[in-house]
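Two proteins, back to back. First:
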Amino acid sequence: MSRIVDIMKMKKITYKLFMITSLILLSFAVLIYLTLYFFLPTFYEQYKTNQLQSGMVDIIKKSEKIKLEHAKNLLDEYSKENNAIIYLQEKDGNIIYSPSFMIQGNSPPPIITGKTTPLQNEETVNAFHKSFPIQFLDEGNLIVNVFATFQPIDEASQVLVRFLPYISIIVVGIGLGSAYLYSRFITKPLLYINERAQKMANLDFSENIVVRSNDELEELSNSLNEMSNNLQKTMNDLQIANEQLKDDIERERKIETKRREFFTTVAHELKTPLTVMKGYIEGMIYNIGPYQNRDYYLEKNRKIIERTEQLVREILSMSKLEQDTFKIQAREINLLDLIETITKDLAFFASQKNIRIINKIPPDNYVFTDSDLLEKALKNIIHNAIMYSPQGETVYLALTEDSKQNQIQIQIINTGVQIKADELQQLFQPFYRIEKSRNRNTGGSGLGLYIVKQIFQSLSINYSVNNMENGIQFLVTFPER
């Protein structure tokens, strides 16, 4: 139903143009007919009169230099060309010559004399009748009379009246047919443009408007196509921006949720040692049972404070990474020098557990990144490898190069331990601890690998943790050089 309504709406312009064109053509036809009927006789009469007068004036000028005998040819020619009756008269009324009285055949016309005029019985209504003075070399002053009827134009007017029905049929037929073809020719591209424009209005940009008319309609179609393309591009950009905004909002929501969970966990992690210390201190104050040994419990409080202080430092480091004002200070770093510095700092912890650190990092390998952040992340990884490996195990440090992807990878492998597959990715969650192997007695804050994750994400460094046959591999992949 809506389709039919749309078609009817589109047909309105064809109907209007057809009616207007038809009325214009019919008006012009009627105007032309009335002009011919009313003004043609007057125009013809004026034209005929001017022709008769101007022709006779020429003959009069020429007659002054020739004889009457020689002027007869001029009079004959004038009479034939103008379909006029002409005769010469003397002043007393005698007719001396008239081409109208010529005898049939080739014999010359006789000289007619007498006072009887050939116009005495002619109809003088609606006719030209005028006398002109004329003279020849061999004749004195004569009078030339000219008579011409306007009857043919009157007959033509009557014929027009009788032919009016036929003319009307022809004019109406031609006018309506021409108006229909003209309206269809003009409105066809307009209807086509309107149909495509309706699709554009309904956000359907699948088809462009193609009009090859080399005029304003083609310019209009090109403008609509350009508008359609720009609108489609803008809508695509808006859609992409909207999707991006949704993703950003969702990401911010997740970050906010994680932040709240993190601070809740932090509060819990801080509350536990504070509660323990409070219990120790109260026991020492009131000399309750074993708490009378103040030196022992003061040392335990000192260790709790150190762990709490370490936890606060880790929180501040992580908070610094998440600040918008934080900027990475990238420079070229020699990996061998960096690893040797880290292993020297951690040598004491390795010696306590009789763990060997085997450094297989070759010299002259450089990466471009933030030195302090990378050192902190690698130190946390190697420190974890030492702290959570059994006594007498080994920590391997190796470097591999991928020539196809132009990447450098560092492997940190600690032997003698494995982690369940479902717990590997949870290692990077804040305060996540593996049962038995990871607890507060190890001295960790629970944020070490979480900070590693934050640092690597800030530096665009890929990482992964995998179980090996006799150990755990931590793989660090640097971006393309």
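And the second protein:
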Amino acid sequence: MGSTAHHGGEGVGRRDLIKRSAALGLVATPAMGLLSACASGGGDGDNSNEGNTKGKASKDNPFGAKSGSKLDVVVFKGGYGDDYAKAWEADFSKKLGITSTHTGTQEITGKLQPRFNAGNPPDVVDDSGAQQIKIDVLYKNGSLLDLSEVLDAPSVDDPSKKVRDTLIPGTLDPGVQEGKVVALNYIYTVWGLWYSGKLFKEKGWTPPKTWDDFLAICQDAKKQGIGGLAHQGKYPYYINVAIMDMIAKKGGIDAVKAIDNLDPKAFVGSAAAQAGVEAIYEVVEKGLLMPGTNGLTHTESQTRWNQYKAAFITCGSWLENEQLKQTPTDFDMKFLPMPLLSGSKMPFEAIRAGSGEPFIIPAKAANLPGAKEFMRRMLSKEWSTLFAKEANSLTILQDGVDPSVKLRPGTQSTVEASKAAGSNTFRYLYPEWYSEMDTAIQNASNELMAKRIQPKEWLKRCQAAVDKQAKDPASKKNRHE
């Protein structure tokens, strides 16, 4: 694989991870109790760090982050880049006198697994991308700090409120393992279809609200030598955005919960699951996919879409950032909720939305007071606005971005879609809770899109993955209510 494809693969993956880990957000370990327990969290009896990193706690510095100490920050450098983290670190140094060692990388597992294994992890990690270390795996190994202490601390902007009360409802859910928030999914993300406003205007196409209208546009595009639907074939996470959204909108929130809660009829025996997968397979059967899309990485597929070689593509809202260099200036990128099958329980405006890009604090971080204060400040309007300026994305902080920040067209269209959706949002939690089951479902979708299996077999394979996961006693500790 060439370096570009490799790079892109991670960016993509990160997005998947984002989504997968979206729920995971911030990491926390149950072992951490007292504010001052900076070394005890590791549980290794090494108190040598405590004196070095624990300062005096105060109203403005609830964890006692110590001036003159150092913070080790590792950030996944994908579609959002890492300039936002550098801006945070500069502000942290200016206000608290704590300097940071900064690493921006796509090789999260390669760089960090040896450090976790050796018991000397960084202090703050954006654990995302194709090489993300899975949150459920880190949690099971006791490597994550329970973030409740950060979330229950006073908000930087309004000390009368706890940090958790300033966040968009539901955004902490993806970071929960067995009832504890151990990852902070920081970026507010929406998932669905994307199209070019310019292309649609030129062709006289109206953004479709029904599946029949979607197919009609794909067929018209095909007649004109344009692909209908593109997807990032080498990363089936992306086509699952379409399949799983169709299932959710057809069957309602009960269909989502059935899958998350490992129901014996989550897939086989579910009318919504059958309708959703058959609809996507119709695109394959009728030859409405962009030619070659099954063999492309995320960036390769997305770049062809930017070249007007397909009418639609599936993705999350990091797409615009990831494709900045490939997107023509007059492309007019637009977001579209998944169109509806007849008899759907959710309205057209309903979208998959929630948090992505999980930030964690390792339980054995050398500077726990500094890491907790850093995370608390991430959830301030100042740092949230810094993020939006540098990364063209929203955060999980309510009204967290200063109105003066000018967002690009695609991101602005997701803001409008979120407003239109209102409370009609949904989010699957199984990718965060059960990474093995998620991979099995992705693998089945890969076979489906390549026409190696039919919808009936896809349902069987997905149900088998659910049934296998349900046999794990630990799965009883997670519940999508």
